[in-house]
Amino acid sequence: MIVVAGVKFQLPTTQLNISFYPTKRGRGLTGLKNLGNTCYMNSVLQCLSNTPQLTEYCITNQYKNYINRSNKTKGHIVEEVAALIKVLWNGNYKCVASKDLRYVIGQYQQIFRGIEQQDSHEFLTILMDWLHSDLQTLDVPEKSHDNLSASDKAWSEFTKSKESVISRLFYGQIKSTVKCIECNKESATYESFSNLSFELPTNNNDNFCPLEQCMAMYFNGEVITGWNCPNCKQQRRAIKKLDISKLPPVLVIHLKRFYADPDALGNSYKKKQIFVKFPLENLDMRPHIAKSELRISSPKTYQLYGVSNHYGSMESGHYTAFCKSNTYGKWFKFDDQVVSALDASSVNSSAAYILFYSWLPTFKN
What we know:
The longest helix is centred in the middle third of the chain and has 15 residues, at 120-134. The chain is an alpha+beta fold. α1 crosses α5 (120-134) and α3 (76-88) runs antiparallel to α4. The strands form seven sheets. Strands 9, 13, 17, 18, 19, 20, 21 and 22 form an eight-stranded mixed β-sheet that branches. A four-stranded antiparallel β-sheet has the order 8-7-12-11. The model is unreliable at 9-23 (pLDDT under 50). β1 and β2 form a beta hairpin. It is globular. The chain has nine helices and 22 strands.
């Protein structure tokens, strides 16, 4: 058993030989059938399935002790996700169809009910909120509100004194600071997140950029006008800067490839095909962390374990997933029902859309 962020994870009693290399099936190497443009859903589910701590939480039925029946989804989403993860990890099937999960999801969000292609980032964000709500029963130790920092107060308001394994694994917090250029007065607000969305550079003639450049565009700050300075009592120019005030153990990064086409009539979108070079190991988040978070002893560097890819255009596209199996220590490509080995050198591509990083210790599922 290991403990992560205050949550106990029961390790399995049997372990597979890491040298075992299945080509058609194996634990965690089951494909998902496309049920009519559901590749966006399949891509996200395979990345979540390859999050070891979440998978063990489902396989060992720990989630059953923490289901919240008083929310909108009444625990139905986590029950179906857990059931699917169990099937993906029993090693008995080459591929399965997630019909029950898709049906339940469609009951709560109509856009996921039909056969139209949807955005995997939108699906992931909604799914994480549902899963968090379905498991939001973990008590948070009470502290005097007067002794809490502004960051902790905002986190308490977000959790309402009830956390979940989802919030403890995937959720972090952004600090937004606005500083008056005239008098240096600062004002800070805090917002929770389950993933960070980074803009891609425009007018990039090389059609290439490192991930750090996208992060710099997000965190380096910008000058804004018309800010109502509470000290000057009038509108001023100010600098707005973002920092991470709470780093999650699992950091999910969304690359904003789609944008509204200003030259087109109606709601038409274009896609940026820029090749974003991202590290597979040792993504260092220290340059982008608030001072209060730097004082906390938790790790600040991350290892990549999953990528949701998008190929094609907004109107006609296809999603796949690249995931590093914690059981076999190798990368695999999940293309709906087809699962195949993938060389680590092929993980970086211009199709990368959502990146899954973790600093958590690894253990064999």
